[in-house]
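Lab notebook page, bench 4
Experiment: in silico fold of construct C2
Operator: M.H.
Input chain length: 226 residues
Purpose: comparison with the prior construct
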Amino acid sequence: MSEPTRILVVDDDAKIRTVVRRGLAYEGYRVVEAASGEEGLEKAREHLPALVILDVMMPGIDGLEVTRRLRSSGDALAILMLTARDEVKDRVTGLETGADDYLVKPFSFEELLARVHALLRRKAAPSGETLRFVDLELDIDAREARRGGRAIGLTTTEFNLLLLFMRHPRKVLTRDVIMDHVWAYDFEGESNVLEVYVRYLRSKLEGDGEPRLIHTVRGAGYVLKE
């Protein structure tokens, strides 16, 4: 079973967050909420959503600054801005900052959902996509990995774990983030299943004595880097 698509809703209006969360959850999405720009940036790092629904007008860090920071950190997630401003120049500013689309308040949930679907289709992996990092390649459709031309057989869990790293190169992924994305539920106690699978992956990726790519960041998690 594939994991539900994650959507982050960032708005200081609790009523809007509730309406959007309930509607998207009913459609099968996994929704995370944030009530401020600061919290939104934190939740984006924690949950790695595929799409962010982001209010422009918020106290503190507004939606435009959140978008700038997400884009400057290399995040390729889709961003849908919610704005009470209907001026062309305001919409242009949002798009130039890095948003993919905008929706003017008040809006109907049906229109919001249509735009969410359109953005996720646009951001979806194209057929035959291959992710590359240094000399490592991952063919998503074939679910096959190669390093330096050497074929690497992967189990389903190993593939999903490597895919998460390849989607977020050079980013430190915490244990909780990895467990949530790859296993989709919490292990009780001091389960070492993640450490076991990282060891499996390393043994396969370094089978011909290649340099390590998956590194341990003590006290933080793991990172895919040179």
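Observations: The chain has a mean pLDDT of 85. Helices lie at 14-26, 37-47, 63-72, 88-97, 109-123, 156-167, 175-183, 193-205.
Next step: discuss at group meeting.
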